[in-house]
Amino acid sequence: MGGFSPEWLALREPVDHAARNPQVLAAVGAHFAAKASLTVVDLGCGAGSNLRGTYAALPARQHWTLVDLDAGLLAATRERLVDWADEAREQGEELVLLKGDHTITVDTRQADLNKDLEWVLGWQPDLVTAAALFDLTSKRWIERFVAALTSQRLPLYTVLTYDGRESWKPPHVADARILSAFKHHQHGDKGFGPAAGPEATDVMAEAFRKSGFAVSIGDSAWRIDERHGELARMLTKGIADAVLETGQVDPATISDWLAARTQSASALVGHCDLWARPV
């Protein structure tokens, strides 16, 4: 899995943070409120947005292990975190970040979540987390992942899993056809086998509940408006390219839809946050 540029991740970060479900995040924070420190593993960390969106709800001392396959993104993560922190220093191969009243130690590790999943989870953190990951993975991989977590009684907080809801304004006659074809594309292999796509949250929740974990799910839809013009442009271009690959919508219709969206667009794009913990 790859192909996510630092530029795209930087564009989506403010919208991601605004979309997070506050009730789910508060429940995660309450679960760990009595702990003086916390260890966290962030899977598919990208450029570190998940850390920046989560840290404030967690105890004042944190150690994050950021995992990604893309070495370039891991390097970008370190740079972004240094810029973001109030103070930063190197401690061997780790970063020590001061942000407000939080002290956050960070190490980055390159790993393939297909080959190395059990090794990564074997680090036994207090919390496993991920953002915008599981819709890219397969049903079989999700079930393997949940089995690995539940066998070690590791809790999971994951945010911004795409759920297939999209509502664009102004409406376009091709909206339904475009969305149907895009959902079809979302089920393609993104490196983990046929992707669960918009069904990923339901697959994950069912697997956790069968294993006796408590599960909370909250809405974290993107709300895109005139403030997010470049994000909307890149998003709709990506949708159009994906739909074109399916062959389910003719190129002229896709081009017309994209032109309309480029001129003016606001949207709700559905995502879910999930918090699963042993009981």
Write the layout of secondary structure elements.
Layout: H1 6-19, H2 22-31, E1 37-43, H3 49-54, E2 61-68, H4 71-84, E3 87-91, E4 94-99, E5 102-110, H5 117-121, E6 127-131, H6 139-152, E7 156-169, H7 175-186, H8 200-210, E8 213-219, E9 222-224, H9 229-246, H10 251-263, E10 266-278
Parallel strand pairs: 1-2, 1-6, 2-5, 6-7
Antiparallel strand pairs: 3-4, 4-5, 7-10, 8-10, 9-10
Helix pairs in contact: 6-8, 7-9, 9-10
Characterise this structure.
By secondary structure, the protein is α/β, with parallel strands linked by helices. It contains 10 helices and 10 strands. It has helices at residues 6-19, 22-31, 49-54, 71-84, 117-121, 139-152, 175-186, 200-210, 229-246, 251-263; strands at 37-43, 61-68, 87-91, 94-99, 102-110, 127-131, 156-169, 213-219, 222-224, 266-278. Strands 1, 2, 3, 4, 5, 6, 7, 8, 9 and 10 form a 10-stranded mixed β-sheet that branches. A hairpin with a 2-residue loop joins strand 4 (94-99) and strand 5 (102-110). Helix 6 packs parallel to helix 8 (200-210), helix 7 (175-186) crosses helix 9 (229-246) and helix 9 runs antiparallel to helix 10. The radius of gyration is 19 Å and the shape is globular. The mean pLDDT is 95.
